[in-house]
Write a structure and sequence with these properties.
Number of strands: 14
Largest sheet: 5 strands, antiparallel
Low-confidence stretches: 1-27
Radius of gyration: 40 Å
Number of helices: 11
Structural class: alpha+beta
Order of helices and strands: HHHEEEEEEEEHEHEHEHEEEHHHH
């Protein structure tokens, strides 16, 4: 290998040398045995980081959507009679219908008892969005959740009415879910095997169906090749449409999500006879025990310390590589200054030639005086004439098209 080539490889031209100075550190530094172990450690660290990062993202995603615990809300429905007799015999006695609720806990053996963990204690109205009561005589009563946050909460509701004889009350209770739950249309529920769920649950079920049946287009991943069952649900009006964009799925799903079915309770009673019935309604509460799990994923202070150490290691590694390049440069110069300078100048000239050929200009064309010669002026005139002729033809064509 010639001296010029050797110097170019060690120091390189000015452009290449500067690029390496600010580039990444060489994975293995010659003359430093520890650099081999450090390189192997970095490779192992990257693999471990990728695994840990994937697990952390999955875990953090589950934490961002806390798990729900199933609890039993015991609803007590009772009727009572106003102790004060009516002023006239023609006036029907007034009676009241009361709904009360209490959150219960299961001991694991199917036995329910009063909830002992005060963190889960909430008023009954916090679990409901709407209560609708219809009596057998057609009278209706309705309660809806206050629109303002922090509105008054209650452990019970009571309504009064005046009538005689046997009475029947149909009570519809719409549960409050966060996030909201929806009932799927019959065709979508049959396709996904899901009756009720949140929007996220439905989208996840659709993607699970697509993955299991291999419906994602191999050439264009954004396209879904629907099978007959899926096409019958998402494009029933035209079964010949077998492709659908993945971005159209959420919009089409919204048309197939219906309000969740309310809890229906039928209560038959005689207003003159006090009575009390008990019903258990399943509700969901947040798992408060998961609130502190974030500290076990990665403590914030430990994460900051780890990032600072990694940055310090990278900085020291860059400094070592930079010092090694400077040492090689000065060592070559000290060995034979004359030969080094000749080789370095030859290297710079070769780099200049490469840049010149890359630009497509000759040495003569790189000077300003070249463009003042008659040949250059004639070439410029012909170029401008050609451009003007092209513009004129385009204008004539556009005018002829308009006429």
């Amino acid at each position: 290998m010639s001296s010029a080539k050797r110097v170019r490889m060690e120091q390189g031209g000015r452009k290449n040398k500067d690029r390496r100075m600010v580039g990444k550190m060489a994975p293995i530094i010659g003359g430093i045995p520890e650099s081999v172990q450090y390189h192997e450690l970095k490779v192992l660290e990257r693999k471990l980081d990728s695994i840990i990062t994937a697990k952390q993202l999955k875990f953090q995603d589950s934490l961002s959507r806390p798990e729900k615990l199933k609890k039993k809300l015991r609803v007590f429905i009772s009727n009572s009679v106003d102790p004060a007799p009516p002023a006239s015999a023609e006036i029907d006695p007034v009676w009241g219908l009361r709904l009360e609720g209490r959150l219960m806990e299961d001991d694991g053996h199917g036995n329910l008892s009063k909830l002992s963990d005060f963190r889960f204690r909430r008023k009954m109205s916090a679990f409901f969005e709407r209560i609708f009561v219809q009596l057998s005589d057609g009278t209706t009563f309705e309660w809806t959740e206050p629109t303002e946050e922090g509105g008054p909460a209650s452990d019970g509701f009571e309504l009064s009415h005046d009538s005689v004889g046997l009475c029947s009350a149909i009570i519809l209770i719409t549960l409050k879910n966060d996030p909201a739950k929806f009932r799927l249309t019959r065709s979508l529920a049959r396709l996904l095997g899901l009756h009720t769920g949140t929007e996220a649950d439905v989208v996840e079920a659709v993607w699970r169906y697509i993955k299991i049946n291999g419906l994602q287009d191999s050439d264009d991943p954004e396209l879904i090749n629907m099978d007959p069952a899926m096409a019958n649900v998402f494009s029933p009006a035209d079964l010949e449409i077998t492709k659908m964009s993945m971005w159209d799925i959420p919009g089409r799903l919204k048309l197939m999500l219906l309000p969740a079915e309310p809890v229906t309770i039928e209560y038959n009673f005689d207003p003159r006879i006090p009575r009390r019935d008990v019903y258990d309604v399943e509700v969901e509460v947040d798992d408060l025990n998961r609130a502190g799990i974030n500290n076990f994923v990665m403590p914030q202070q430990a994460a900051r310390d780890l990032v600072a150490i990694e940055q310090k290691i990278e900085s020291v590694s860059r400094d070592v590589a930079e010092t090694r390049r400077k040492r090689a440069f000065l060592k070559s110069f000290a060995r034979d200054p004359k030969e080094f300078l000749h080789s370095w100048i030859a290297s710079q000239a070769a780099d200049a030639d490469e840049e010149l050929h890359a630009s497509g200009l000759t040495e003569e064309q790189r000077h300003a005086r070249y463009f003042k010669t008659g040949t250059a002026e004639e070439a410029i005139f012909r170029y401008n004439s050609k451009m003007l002729s092209s513009i004129r033809e385009d204008l004539q064509k556009s005018l002829a098209a308009k006429q």
